[in-house]
Specification:
Number of strands: 0
Structural class: mainly alpha
Radius of gyration: 16 Å
Oligomer: single chain
Shape: globular
Length: 177
Amino acid sequence: MTYFYLLAGGGIATVVHFYLVWLHRGKGKISISEHAVVDKKTHRLYFLSHVACEILILTFSYRFFVVQHNLLLPHYLNICFAFFDFIQAALPSKGKTEKIHYASAYISWVSYIASGILAFVLLDVAQPYKTLSLLFLVPAVGMFLYIHVRRTRLYPYQLAIVPLFVVFMLLLVVGSP
């Protein structure tokens, strides 16, 4: 059941992100967040999908990190992820709230990635799962870093980062005792 929460949370976010980008394609938006705030209806969908994702990821995090492995720090980082993800999803990425939105989104992702990297380091993950997980972690982190260097057309990288990171985490879960 632990897998379900991780896959459902990541799956909901991924599907909604792809839908929003597809729905508002050709409108010159550079990020998923900008695609989401084209109108109130899509922003509401973006917000609700992120709330569902946060609940599912926190459930996964509690069950996996705290209950199964007694690792509090990765779970606390996921709480931080959920808190700041909620803020970035609630506040539009335009106008007066744009800077708060982007700062929250950044803190949220740094927390989420740090949680996964800590899990990779702290868990006793069996081979080949540990090696395979790196094949998903490296491009996810690389893309996350790259979008801070080159800020044009962020959404293709953002669309890839979420599923890559979810598969990375899934491999850690499957490979850990």
